[in-house]
Every structure is written in C-alpha cells, then in structure tokens.
Design brief:
13 helices, two-stranded antiparallel ribbon, four-stranded antiparallel beta sheet, Bacterial polysaccharide co-polymerase-like, elongated, 4 domains, alpha+beta
C-alpha cells in the first residue's frame, strides 16, 4: 500500500474533530507552568557598576618607582586579580553569617563548599574597558540589594588599601635610605667646591653604584628579580662593580679611599663631600616628597580619580527566576507538543480514511463516484427514514437494516 501525504483540508478536519482535546491539553500545560512559576523559590539580582581606570596603575609622580602598565590584557589581569583578592574568605564568612547563608555547625569542608556557592552568586564581568558590572543574587529583594552594596564597598576599599599599602611601603623604604645618606653627609661636613670627583674615579663609580642599588631596592618592594626593569638595573650594577674592582686594583693599598671602603656605608658613598652623593640625596628627597603628595591627595576616598561607583545598586523590582512570562511560553509550547502527540495517537486508533481519493489509491481500485449529502429525510425499505447525512453514515445505517 502506498503512503499518502495529508493536505491542508485533511489537517483542518483533524483539528476540527479534536478541537477540545487540543484546547484542553494546551490550557492544562500552560496553567501548570504558571502555577509552577508562582510557587517555585524566587531569586532576585541586584547589580551595580564600578569603574577602575588605568590611572590606578599609572601615576606620573611615582613613575620612577612604580612601573606603569599600558598593555590592555595585563591591565585586565591586574583588575581581575584585585577583584578576586577583595572577595577573600574572611569577607565571605562575614557576609554569609550576616545573611544566614552559612550553617553554624559546618565543618571546614562544608564551609569551603558554602563559600564557593556564595562566590557563584557574585558575578563580575567587564562591560567596557575599565568598567565592570558587579551583581549579587539572593532569595530576597532587600538581601540582594544590601549584599550588592556591601560587595561593591568591599571591592572599592580593598583596591584603595592595596594602593595605599604599596605607596606606604615605598615611603618607608625611601625614608630609611635617606637617613643612611643623611648620616654620612652630616658626619663629613659641608661640600667643598673643589671636591667634585670625576665619574671615572672610584668615588664617582661608587656614587653611581649607590644610586643604582637604591633604585633596585625600591623596585624590589613591588617586583621580583625577574622583572625587566630589575634585570636591566642588575646588569648595570654588575658592570659598575666590575669597573670599581678595576679602579680599586689600580689604586695603592694605603690609599685613604681604600680605608674608607672598609666601612659598609662608606663603601657605597666614598666621601660626604662627593657631589654625586648629594645629588642622590636630593633626588630621593624629591621622590619622597612626591609620594607624600600622592598619599595626601588620596586621603579623601570619595573623590579618587581612578576608581568610582558609576551605578549604585537598586532594589530589584522582579525576580530573575522563575520568570512568569518565560514559564507561560514554555507551557504553551509544551501544550502544543503534547496535544499533537495525543491527536496523532487518537487518529491512529480511528482507522478511517481521510477522503475517497485516498481509498481509491490505497485499494488500487477506480473511483466510480461519490454519494452527495442528503437534504431532508430518506425513506428506507421496510419502513423508517434517515436524516440527511453523507455517505459513511448512510452506509452504516443501511448495513444495520
């Protein structure tokens, strides 16, 4: 037997015949989806926007001490590292205990799991270069709003504290270095005009070496020995040390300079009257002054140029899950699918032909004609009558007679 595709009229007949089945199935699935959306636990999201500009990593006043970062990928990595550092375990523990998100009697493994779940509720992603959206998900509207504000405040304070700590450490290291040089200058007395030493002499080389070592010490406060600037200064240091050994070997053992070189600081700064040492002192004093200026400017945390909260979080007006509109749309689609399957099953149980042409093709017999629908009543042999109906009803009635 050959297969026959359904045409539009056949499909309309099927829909008309099973209209109530289709309508009830769709209505039932849609209603169940709406009820589920109403009773499922709700989740709310509050979000804010924070701006962390590249000037945080680039400061002209301390550029000689802190290397600027200009590469965009490295800047993003530095920003992400600061955000992760801000969301430390101590902060998460306080947040979880405050909003009853953690169990009080949880063991260490359980607490680690709770922290990880809380971190998943906090989303941070970039919306544009230097701008990040921070959002927090919570079962309640108010708790989502309050947690979002606390997370933003924690991030801002951590970023500012990290910068302040860096500058303070630099300042402390520089003050100690200045005190060492100041002690030597004070012990030697005022500089004489004719005491300038040639750069090719041992005194000049030692002065250069002292300045170089000071710069390396300052760089090592923030970077490791593998940093390009440190490597470059190390190479210069080795070159100057080799030069100093050559000059020292050429000098007589009884030279006063060699006697002074036995002292640790005098080995770095040959004589207090050396102009290079005083220039080094003045240079370090200027850098210390620049650091003080930066620290004073950044005391007011509300008006910092490199970090700001662009958009404060608001109380969410609706839940992000479950969304009633999405659930109703899903229920409608599910109802259509279920109704289609039910109608197909019912039509397979009927076992009827869709049209006379389909019967002719399936049986491979010619179609001689069709009996039209009868209008009025039709008398039957032996008495009785039929109401006007089509061929199928008439055939079955005649067969019963």
């Amino acid at each position: 037997m050959r297969e026959q595709a359904l045409d539009l009229q056949d499909i309309l007949r099927i829909i008309h015949r099973n209209f109530w089945v289709i309508a009830l199935t769709i209505a039932l699935c849609t209603a169940l989806a709406g009820i589920s959306a109403y009773y499922l636990p709700k989740r709310f999201k509050a979000k804010g926007v924070i701006s962390l500009q590249a000037t945080y990593f680039q400061n002209p006043l301390v550029r000689d001490l802190i290397s600027d970062i200009y590469d965009q990928s490295e800047l993003n990595s530095q920003r992400e590292a600061l955000f992760k550092y801000a969301l430390n375990n101590n902060f998460l523990d306080k947040l979880g205990d405050k909003y009853n998100l953690f169990e009080q009697d949880a063991d260490e493994a359980g607490r680690d799991y709770e922290r990880e779940k809380l971190r998943e509720r906090i989303e941070i992603f970039s919306t544009s270069p230097g701008t990040f959206q921070v959002s927090v998900t919570s079962p309640g509207r108010i708790s989502a709003f309050q947690m979002s504000r606390e997370v933003l405040s924690q991030i801002v304070n951590t970023i500012i504290d990290q910068r302040t700590t860096l500058l303070t450490n630099l300042r402390s290291a520089m003050e100690g270095h200045l005190q060492s040089i100041s002690g030597i200058i004070g012990a030697a007395g005022p500089e004489s005009d004719g005491a300038a030493t040639s750069d090719s002499s041992a005194a000049g080389v030692r002065a250069k070496l002292a300045k170089l070592r000071a710069d390396i010490r300052l760089l090592l406060v923030n970077f490791t020995d593998k940093h390009p600037d440190v490597i470059k200064l190390r190479a210069k240091q080795n070159s100057l040390e080799a030069r100093l050994e050559e000059i020292s070997a050429a000098e007589t053992p009884d030279s006063p300079t060699d006697v002074k070189a036995t002292a640790p600081l005098a080995a770095l700064y040959t004589s207090a009257s050396d102009r290079s040492v005083r220039e080094l002192y003045a240079d370090l004093l200027k850098k210390l002054s620049n650091i003080d200026i930066v620290l004073n400017l950044e005391k007011d945390r509300r008006n910092l140029p490199y970090i700001s909260i662009v958009e404060q979080p608001l109380i969410p007006s609706s839940a992000i899950f479950p969304r009633v509109d999405l659930f109703l749309a899903f229920g409608l689609l599910l109802g259509i699918l279920c109704a289609t399957l039910i109608v197909i099953y019912l039509e397979m149980l009927r076992g009827t032909f869709m049209s006379p042409q389909f019967v002719s093709e399936q049986l491979q017999l010619p179609l001689l004609g069709e009996l039209p629908s009868l209008e009025g009543n039709l008398s039957l042999p032996g008495g009785g009558y039929l109401l006007g109906r089509g061929l199928p009803e008439l055939s079955r009635e005649i067969a019963k007679r």
